[in-house]
Amino acid sequence: MIEQMPVISSEATKELKKIIALIDKAIARATEVMKQLVLACHKETLALINSVKGVGLKTTLILISYLGDLDSFQSAKQVAHFMGLGNVDNQSGQRTRPRRISKRGHPELRSLMFLCALSAARHNTSCRDLYQRLMAKGKPKKVALIAVANKLVRQIFAVVKNKTPFENNYLEKASISLAS
What we know:
With 180 residues, the chain is mainly alpha-helical. The protein has one domain (44-179). 67% of the residues lie in helices and 7% in strands. Strand 1 and strand 2 (95-101) form a beta hairpin. Helix 1 (10-50) crosses helix 2.
């Protein structure tokens, strides 16, 4: 990024690189402190959420700091609405438009889950299938990614509530055992 500037000063470049290194170290320290705090209270929840493909450690720490261990939610739909990912009707009087996501939730969590959806659309089998199916139907990319983010929320909720780690090919394994 520094190299893209119109005028490059070697001294300015050195100073900027030092500042970036300091910020990276501070982020690493803050992440480690946050991890230790979460491990003290929510060790099992941390391991369960972190087992979901597409959700990393930093995301897991942020989710736990906002949501706790999901005891205050009865359904994944409530979690999605809390994050601002829930679908709402878009109507007023006689006018009815297509449904859209609610913007009432936490914008940080919404954007975080959107970024996780990018990763899950590649690495999480059921999310990838959903994404490809929606893209094949002609849905816009952002709409498909919001659907993947909702699926991730449902997977996280199910993993935490059932206290079982995530299995990437769960449906395939279940259908094979049923066929046997």
